[in-house]
Amino acid sequence: MPKPLRWVLSLIFIVQMYLAMAVIALAFAIPALISRAAAFAAIHTFCAWVRFSARVLVGLRSEIRGEVPQGEVLIVAKHQSFFDIILMTSALPRPRFIMKRELIWAPILGQYALRIGCIPVDRGKRGAAIAKMKADAARGASEPGQLIIYPQGTRVPPGAKLPYKVGAGLLYDQLGQTCVPVATNVGIFWPKHGIMRQPGLAVVEFLPAIEPGRPVAGFMKEIEATVEAASNALMYEAGWAGA
Question: Does CATH place domain 61-237 in 3.40.1130.10?
């Protein structure tokens, strides 16, 4: 397909995706106010639509691998673009995220994120942000679901290096829950910035669980090695040439 046509189709895909977000959010608005389950239904409907329209419009297929957790677990995931959020959320029954505080002001997205129990964090405050994140996570522990944290704190393009932050380890230690690492290759198809979407098979893979009780330092080393190796393997599988 000629590059200009692919760019146009990518633009059409992005525009219709946000239109779909608005339509679905409005359709579920009142039920979502009454029931957290209805808010999850709206989000799952939107994610299913994005996966379908990505396949049809830009040839971007998607796949979930591994055993998808159903109960209360901590998920520590690689974050490359908005699409890995879409794929994880489509697969998990009750996902909620540690997210940037500024996202609570995003129309629709912020309101639904708070409704399902996402935890906003001010990344600029470091120690205070970690303390608040831990306190909010403890208060929300009674809400059933899967708590997702991106240990690098932001979207990281394929091949880029960014350290894993200790917040993930502190949550693992505090919550005393099983941790499920998650790898992905979505960044080679759906970049952090820009319009163009590439065809191929985007994958999110749920990796073998790490049981609670590990020392934080050892946990952090294991989670980084596991997630980075698995993500690189998925990217190489998809034809990535490396950094």
Answer: yes
